[in-house]
Amino acid sequence: MRMDLIRSIFLIAPELIATLTAIIAIIGAMLMKHSKGREAFYIGILGMLGAIAATIILYERLTLNTAFYGMIAIDPFSLFFRLIAYTSIIYVLLMAFCSREMKDTEGKWELVAILSGFGIGMSMMASSLNLLMIYLSMELLSVMSYLLVSYSRGERRSKEAGLKYIIYGSIASGFMLYGMSILFGISHSLNLKDILITLINFHYPPVTIYVATLFVLAGFGFKIAMVPMHMWAPDVYEGAPTPVTALLAVASKAAGFAVILRFFYTAYISAVSMTQYYADLSSVHWLLLIAIISAFTMTIGNIVAIPQNNIKRMLAYSSIAHAGYMLIGLSIISKDAISAVLLYLTVYFFMNLGAFVVVMIVDNSLHSEDIDKYSGLSQVSPGLSAAMTIFLFSLTGIPPFAGFIGKVVIFIAAIDKGLYWLVIIAVLNTVVSLYYYARVVKKMYLETPSGNIQPIKVGILPALIIISLLVPTILFGIWWAPLQSFAHFASFMY
Amino acid sequence: MLSHYLLSWIVFTPMIGFVVVLLMPRDKVSWIRWTTVVFTFIPMVLSFYMYGTMNFADGNFQFVEKYSWITAFNIQYFLGVDGISASMIVLTGLLGFLSVFASWNINKAHKAYFALYLLLVTAMFGVFLSLDFFLFYIFWELMLFPMYFLIGIWGGPRREYAAIKFFLYTLAGSVFMLVVILALYFNSTDPVTGRHTFDLVTLMNQANQGPFIKQFGVRLAMYIALFIGFAIKVPVFPFHTWLPDAHVEAPTAISVILAGVLLKMGAYGFMRISYPLLPDMANYTAFAMAILGLINIVYGALVAMAQTDFKKMIAYSSVSHMGFVLLGLSSMTYIGFNGALMQMFNHGIITGMLFLLVGVIYDRAHHRDLNGFGGIAAYMPIYAGITSLAFMGSLGLPGLSGFVGEILVFLGTFKVYPVIVIISATGVIFTAGYFLWAYQRVFFGPANEKYKGIAEINGRELFTLVPLGLIALFLGVYPVPFFNLVSVSLSKLLMMVGH
User: Is the pLDDT assigned to residue A362 strictly greater than 80?
Assistant: First the structure.
C-alpha cells in the first residue's frame, strides 16, 4: 500500500511542481506586495517549464500505469494533455506580459497561482478514471477559469463575463453531477472501469443510459462549447482579457475533449486490444447522438459567426465550430479517431492561439476589437497582417496550412467508418467558414483604412510568440508525419 | 541528373523565386520584376526541354518522381507527365512567363504581387504534374489564396466582390472533391503493398477499387461530386457566374492566367481524374455533358454578343469556347478527344492574346466600353492588325489554330450526337458575329478624335503577343507537332473509358 503511494507521488511530479509554483506565488504575493510582478512571471514560467520537463521525463520511462489505487491513469494520453496544459499556460503568461488589459493590473502573483491551479485541474481531468475525481478536477479548472475571466477588475464587461460564466458553469456542473449519480446508482461504483462492466453485463433500459449520457455530456460539452451548451462562449470570450480568452479557447477546450475521450473510451467502450475497440451498448445509439450534436455544433457556430463584428466574438463562434469538427472524431470508435482528435487539438492550439495573439497586439494599439478597425492593416503592418492571414486561412482549413491537415485526418477517420453524411456537412461548413475568416483578411488587405491608421508596434516578445506559433502552422501543413506519429502514440489510454 | 528531377524543378523553381522575392527590399521594383522574369523563364525553358526529350510513342507517364511523403496515410510525392499534361505544362510555362511582362504596369505593392504570382505559377504546374490525388488536391487548393489576393488587391473597382466570389465558388467545388478523394482512398488497395492508396495510376486500374465504390449509386454520386468540382473551374453552365466577375476585375496578367491556365484545370481534371477513375459513369453521363457543352457554346456566345464591356465579352467567349472542350470530351471518340485537347491549348493561346490586347487598350484609354472607341485602326494600325489575328483565331478562321480544334470536335462528335453538333454549330456563327461586330465598333468607322494622340502598341506588349500569335498561326497550318505529343496518351485514355 505504502509503496503504491510513494510510486504514485512520482507519477504526478508535474502536478506537484505546479502546486509548488502556486504555493511560491501565494507566498510571493504576501512578501512582495509592492513589486510590479515581473518576478511572478519568471517564477510562473520557470514552474511550468519544470512541469513540462517532468512530463517529458515521465514520457521517457513510461509504463501504462495507474496511480493512487486506480484513481488516475498515467498513460501517453494524459501526458499529452499535460504538455498542452503547461505549454498553453506559458503562452498565456507570455501574452499577459504584453497585454494592455493585463500588464498593469495588480495581482500578478495571484495570476500565476491561478494559472498553476488551472494546469493541475486540466492534467487531472485528462487522467481521471473515477467519476469523483473527474468532477473535482473539472471544478478546479472551472473555478480557476471563473477567476481568470474576471481578472480585469476595473473592466465592467470582464466582471460581467465572469458572472455569466459562473452561472452557466454551475448549471452545467449540476447536470453533470445528476448524470453521474445515475451512473453511480446503476453500477454502485465511481470507477469508470466498473461502470463499463455494469453497462455490458446488465441490460438497463435504454432511457436510463440515454439520460445519464446526455446529462454527463452536458457537463463535458459545456467546456468545449458544444451546442446547445455553447451560449456562454461568445459573451465570456468577448469579456475576458484576450490572453484568458486564448486559454479558454485552447486549453479549456482541450481539457473538455480529454475528459470526454477518457470517459467514453473507458466507461462505454471496451478495448479489445491496444488498437481495437468495441462499443457494447448496442441498444443505445450514443454515437449517433454525438454525430448529430457535432453537425449542429459546427453549423450553428459557423453560421452565427458570419454577422459578428467583434473579432473575439467571431473567434468564439469559430471555436464552437471547431469543437463541432472535433466531435466528428468522437462519433466514431477507433484508434485513428482518438489520434485524429489529438492531432486536431495540437494544430488548433497553434493556429487559434496565434490568431488571439494577433488580436491582442492589435487591441493593444488600437484599443478595439472591432473587425472594422482592421481595415487597411496590411498597409501599416504587413507582417502582422500576413501572420493573421495565415492563421485565419489555417483555421478555415485551406492547404498548405496545418488546419487543413487537422480536418483531413478527422475526415479520414470518419470516412473509414462510413460516416459520409457528417463529413459532407463538415466540408460544406468549411466553405461557410471561409466567408467570415476571409472577411477579416479582406478588411486587412482589400480595404483602405478609414481615417488615419497608426502603425502598430510589435515588440520583440510578441513577435517571437507569433513566430513560434506561425512556424508549426505552416510546417505541419506540409510535413506532419512527426505530428501524426506523436498523436498516434498519445492515443494510448490505460 | 536534370531529367531525374526535371518535373520537380519545373514545379518548384517559381517557389524558389517566391522566397527570393520575399527576401528583396520592397522598393527595388525592377529587381523584383526581373527576378520574376528569371524564375518564370527557367520553368518555361525546362518545359520546352521536357517536350523535346519526351518519348511521344510511350503512352505511360514519364519523368516519374515517386517518393513516400506521409507514410501513415500512404501519401506520395508522385509527379509524372504524359502527352495530356505535357501540352498543359508547355502552355503554363509559356503563359506564366509572358504574363509577367503584362504585369509591368502593376502600380502598388509590387513585391507582394510578384511573390503571389510566383506562388500561383508553382501551384499551376503542380496541378498538372501531380499523380497522387492528395498532392493534386494540395496544389489545386494552393492556387486559391494567391488568386484571391491577386484579384482582390490589384483588381478593378468591384474587386472585393469578384475575389471572394471566386474563392467561395472554387472552394465549394473542391471540398466535394476532397470527400471523393477520401472515399476512393478507403475503397482502394494497392496490389503491391496491400494498403489504401491515393496513387492515381493505381486507382485508374478498376481492379484496385473496392466493392463499396463499385455500386452504381455511389459511383454516380462520386462522379457528380467530382464533376461539380471541375465544372466550376471550367466553368460549365450553370456554374459559370463567377467567371465574368473575376475576369473583368482581375488585372490583365491575371486574366490571362485565369483564362489561359485555370480554366484548363477543370477540363484537365475530367481527362486525368473523372474519366479514368470512373469510366462507366463518364459514359453514362456523356449525353448530359454534351448537352452542357451545347449550352455553354450557344449561351456563352449569345451572352458575349450582348456585352458592351470588351473584357466581359471575352470572358463570355471563354465560356463558349470551353463548351467545345466539353463537347469533344463527351463524344468518346479519338477525334473528339484530340479536338478537345487542341481546343484547350488553343483557347489558352488565343484567349491569352485577347486579354493581353484588352489590357493594351485599357492602359491607354482607361475604359473598355466597346461603344466608346471607333476608328482606332487609324491611330494604332499594328494593334489593329494583331487584334484581327486574335479575333480571327478565336472565331475559328481556317488557317489559324482555333479552327483545327473546333472542326475536330465537330467531326468527332457528329458521329455520336449529330443534332447537338448541328445546333452547336450555330454558336460558331454567333461567335463570328460578336467578334466582327466588336471589331467594327472599336477599329472601324469614323476616327474618334478623343484618341488622336493614343500611343501605338509598344515593344514590351508586342513581345508578349507575337509568340502567341505565331503559335496560333503555326498550329493552324501545321498542327502535327501537337498531335504527335498528345495522340498516344489520348488513345490510352480512350481505351480506359472503353472505346
Answer: yes
- Contact between B355 and B368 under an 8 Å Cβ cutoff? The reply is no
The CA angle B338-B480-B63, to the nearest 5 degrees, is 75
Residue A455 neighbours by CB distance under 10 Å: 11
- The secondary structure of residue A228, as a DSSP letter, is T
Determine which of B67, B108, B158, B167 to mutate to test the interface with A (most A C-beta atoms within 10 Å): B167
The CA distance from A180 to A166, in Å, is: 20
Q: Which of A391, A298, A311, A400 is nearest to A359 (CA)?
A: A311
Q: How far apart are CA B358 and CA A400, in angstroms?
A: 34
Apex B323 CA angle, B321 and B324, nearest 5? 75
Q: With 70 as the cut, is the pLDDT of residue A274 above it? A: no
Asked if A398 and B183 come within 8 Å (Cβ–Cβ), the reply is no
* Under 8 Å between Cβ of B75 and B135: yes
Distances (CA, A) of B278 to B118, B203, B337, B498: 34, 10, 17, 11
Q: How much is the pTM?
A: 0.93
d(Cα B438, Cα B392) in Å, to the nearest integer? 12
Residue A54 CB burial class (10 angstroms; 0-12, 13-18, ≥19): buried
Residue A282 has pLDDT above 70, yes or no: no
Give the count of alpha carbons within 13 A of A420, CB side only: 17
CB-based contact A424 B167, cutoff 8 Å: no
How far is it, in rounded angstroms, from Cα B346 to Cα B354?
A: 12
CB contact under 8 A, B179 and A411: yes
B-facing residues of A in 428-467 (CB < 8 A) are 428, 430-431, 434-435, 438, 442, 445-447
Separation between Cα atoms, residue A487 and residue A80, nearest integer Å: 8
Q: Which of A398, A444, A485 to mutate to test the interface with B (most CBs of B within 10 A)?
A: A398
Report whether A154 contacts A97 (CB < 8 A).
no
Q: Which residues of chain B have pLDDT under 70?
A: 1-2
Residue B65's H or E segment, with its range, is strand B62-70
Report pLDDT digits (tens) over B378-431.
888 888 889 999 999 888 888 888 889 899 999 999 988 999 999 998 888 999
Q: How far is A481 from chain B (nearest CA, A)?
A: 6
- Annotate B161-194 with b (16+ C-beta within 10 A) or e (fewer): ebbbbbbbbbbbbbbbbbbbbbbbbebbebeeee
CA within 13 Å, CB half, A403: 27
Partner B, chain A 403-432, Cβ-Cβ below 8 Å: 404, 408, 411-412, 415-416, 420, 423-424, 427-428, 430-431
Alpha-carbon gap: A329 to the closest alpha carbon of chain B (Å): 15
Shortest Cα distance from A337 to chain B (angstroms)?
Answer: 14
pLDDT tens per residue across span B84-113: 999 999 999 999 999 998 888 888 888 889
Give yes or no for a contact between B133 and B181, defined as CB atoms under 8 angstroms apart: yes
Mean pLDDT is lowest, of A79-88, A313-322, B105-114, B448-457, for B448-457
The span from the CA of B154 to the CA of B427, in Å, is: 34
Contact indicator for A426, A328 with CB cutoff of 8 Å: yes
Measure CB to CB from residue B152 to each of A435, A446, A484 and give the nearest one. Answer: A446
The Cα of A375 is separated from the nearest Cα of chain B by a number of Å equal to 13
Closest-CA residue in chain A for B184? A415
**Cβ distance of A445 and B153 shorter than 8 Å:** yes
Contacts of B61 (CB under 8 A, 6+ apart): B80, B81, B82, B131, B201
Contact (CB, 8 A) for B81 and B50:
yes
Instruction: Give pLDDT, residue A276.
Output: 66
- B171, B174, B249: which to substitute to probe chain A, counting the most A Cβ within 10 Å? B171
